[in-house]
Structures are given as structure tokens and as C-alpha cells.
């Protein structure tokens, strides 16, 4: 793990790059040298809405990733600073300008804290260097009407009082559901209600109710993988995009994917183009996901394959191959042939 001197060099490089790009909200540095934008998107995807991500090389030779987000930059910084990557040397530097321009979602601002819950500091004016700091809630101080929090630093003076306006929950108990409305502006439309695709809608209802047994899903039969559980089709800009069966030439078999939820998976793959459906998002195979990711256009599937195949996540490399270029299609044809005919 890099020492204090290397960390300072990293942070200096990040600060210089941030000065050159006033639109950036924060910068990351100290990530694996082999990483490029695709790998960094995978890193940032689960913790925030990323509007723009770009790699820039500082004059010192250090690669810096600058991020522009519609989320609260200080909250994103705090989440990244508590990640496994931070323990491996990742450094996160916030832009010097105030992050108060980012509206705090109601689900975050009205959160009721409890002792030992995790939080993040933001919007501080007198101690701006603490913005983006993760902390633990100690108690509410009635006399000062502030929260006493313990910072994640090794120091005897690591407890401070902060106003409720400067404290956010690091994670909500049910993050996906609580933030669904707040993310609506930045999320692709239609993931939860694609009326044009009745098959995907039915599959989504089943997924939301609970994890149900395999088989007997029409979308699953049409797409031909009896071992994968159907999930909602991704957003489509046109109603007709959800109709019809999946073309194997437009679909990728992705293995080694992390155990993200459907919303995170959809956001990641939708970056490359309009999706038709994603299968397998509820299957855990040895701590990883095996996905069938189908696009409406072959050119988007090709773009996705080029970025995803070989990308590294948590030390594991992803594999992304076209469904019709592997044994996958032949396996599904054999399964379909062996399946009893249903005349209904």
C-alpha cells in the first residue's frame, strides 16, 4: 500500500487537474495503473450517478480520474473513502468549490440517525477539509442541538459536533428503494414500467415480490436460458423496442460480473446503448453473476463487448462474448428442443 509521501503526490496531481476543469466535482487517483474509463465506471457505478467520467494524465505522469456527478460530491467521496479500493491506496479529492449547489434528496435530508450509524460530512464552511469525511454517529447533543460524530481518523481529537444540515447518512437502509424517486432524472427511463414488453413487465413483478423458482417464464423461454432468471427489460426510447424475441447476434454472455442489483446492472450496460433485456441478474454463481445482456442494435452490443470484455473488477476479469459466437446458442437450442411443447 502506498505511503504518506506517495499519497501526497497523488493528491497534488488531483488538485492540479481539478483546477483545470471547473466543471468537475471530484477527482480519484491511486487506482490500478491498468484501469481505464470502463473499469472506473464499474468502480463508481454502485455508489453514485456519474454524469461524466474522464481520465487525464498530470504532468507528473500520474493518471487522474475526474468525475462530474448529479449526486452530492461529498457523499460520493465519503463512500469511496470507505471502499476496499481506499484501503489499497485510492485517494479522493473534492473540488474546492462548495457542494451546496447540489440539492439534497428528501430521503437523505430527513433521515433519522441512530447511535453508531455511519454518516458523511458535507457543506462545512469553517472546516472545508472535512467535507467528504466518513464518520460514525455517537449521539445527539441536546445542549448544542448538534450531532456528535466520530471521524475515521486515528487521533484523540476525532470527535466533533456538526449541524444536521452538514450530516448525511452514508447509506440508507434500503438504498435502491429510498433513492428511486431522487434518481429518476438521471436514471434511464422505463426500467420499471415498459408497457410495450409484457413479458419483461411480468418478470419484473415476480422479481419485486421475491426470488421465485426457475422456469415457466415466457421471456425466459423466448430468450432461451433455463438457468437464468428473467429480469425487467432495460429502458427503451421507443415502445416497439421491447417487442419480439432477442437476437443472439445482439446479445452478450457476460461472466464474472459482481453481485450488483438490477438497477446498478442496468445503469452500467445502458451506457453503451438501448437495451432490450437483461437475464440472470438474480443468479449468484460462486459470488458472481452470469448475465445475458441484449441490445436493440448490434452496433451497441459490439460497443459494449469491446468495453466490457477483459475489464477487471475486484481482481476478477470479465468475459463478454456474443451469444451466437459461443456454445451458448447451441446449448439453448438443445434445451428448447428438449422442452415439452405447450399448446396454450
TrEMBL record:
Region (Disordered): 179-244
GO terms of molecular function: nucleic acid binding
Organism name: Symbiodinium necroappetens
InterPro entries hit by this protein: Nucleotide-bd_a/b_plait_sf (IPR012677), RBD_domain_sf (IPR035979)
Biased composition range(s): Basic and acidic residues: 202-211
Protein name in the entry: HXT3 protein
Domain of life of the native organism: Eukaryota
Biased composition annotated in UniProt, kind: Low complexity: 230-244
Amino acid at each position: 500500500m502506498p505511503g504518506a509521501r506517495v499519497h501526497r503526490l497523488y493528491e497534488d496531481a488531483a488538485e492540479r487537474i481539478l483546477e483545470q476543469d471547473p466543471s468537475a466535482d471530484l477527482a480519484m487517483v491511486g487506482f490500478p495503473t491498468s484501469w481505464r474509463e470502463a473499469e472506473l465506471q464499474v468502480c463508481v457505478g454502485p455508489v453514485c450517478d456519474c454524469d461524466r467520467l474522464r481520465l487525464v494524465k498530470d504532468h507528473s505522469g500520474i493518471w487522474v480520474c475526474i468525475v462530474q456527478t448529479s449526486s452530492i460530491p461529498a457523499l460520493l467521496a465519503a463512500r469511496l473513502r470507505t471502499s476496499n479500493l481506499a484501503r489499497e491506496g485510492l485517494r479522493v479529492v473534492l473540488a474546492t468549490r462548495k457542494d451546496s449547489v447540489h440539492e439534497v434528496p428528501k430521503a437523505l435530508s430527513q433521515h433519522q440517525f441512530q447511535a453508531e450509524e455511519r454518516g458523511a460530512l458535507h457543506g462545512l464552511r469553517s472546516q472545508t477539509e472535512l467535507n467528504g469525511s466518513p464518520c460514525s454517529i455517537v449521539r445527539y447533543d441536546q445542549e448544542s442541538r448538534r450531532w456528535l460524530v466520530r471521524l475515521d481518523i486515528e487521533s484523540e481529537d476525532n470527535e466533533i459536533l456538526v449541524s444536521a444540515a452538514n450530516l448525511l447518512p452514508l447509506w440508507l437502509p434500503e438504498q435502491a428503494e429510498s433513492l428511486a424517486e431522487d434518481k429518476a432524472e438521471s436514471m434511464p427511463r422505463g426500467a420499471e414500467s415498459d408497457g410495450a414488453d409484457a413479458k419483461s413487465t411480468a418478470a419484473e413483478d415476480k422479481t419485486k415480490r421475491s426470488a421465485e423458482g426457475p422456469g415457466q417464464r415466457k421471456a425466459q423461454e423466448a430468450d432461451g436460458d433455463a438457468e437464468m432468471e428473467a429480469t425487467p427489460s432495460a429502458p427503451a426510447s421507443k415502445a416497439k423496442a421491447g417487442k419480439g424475441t432477442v437476437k443472439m447476434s445482439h446479445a452478450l454472455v457476460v461472466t464474472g460480473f459482481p453481485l450488483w442489483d438490477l438497477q446498478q446492472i442496468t445503469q452500467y450496460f445502458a451506457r453503451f446503448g438501448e437495451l432490450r433485456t437483461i437475464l440472470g441478474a438474480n443468479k449468484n454463481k460462486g459470488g458472481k453473476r452470469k448475465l445475458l445482456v441484449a441490445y436493440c442494435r448490434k452496433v451497441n452490443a459490439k460497443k459494449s463487448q469491446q468495453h466490457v470484455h477483459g475489464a477487471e473488477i475486484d481482481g476478477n476479469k470479465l468475459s463478454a462474448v456474443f451469444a451466437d459466437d459461443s456454445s451458448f446458442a447451441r446449448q439453448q437450442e438443445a434445451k428448447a428442443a428438449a422442452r415439452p411443447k405447450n399448446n396454450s
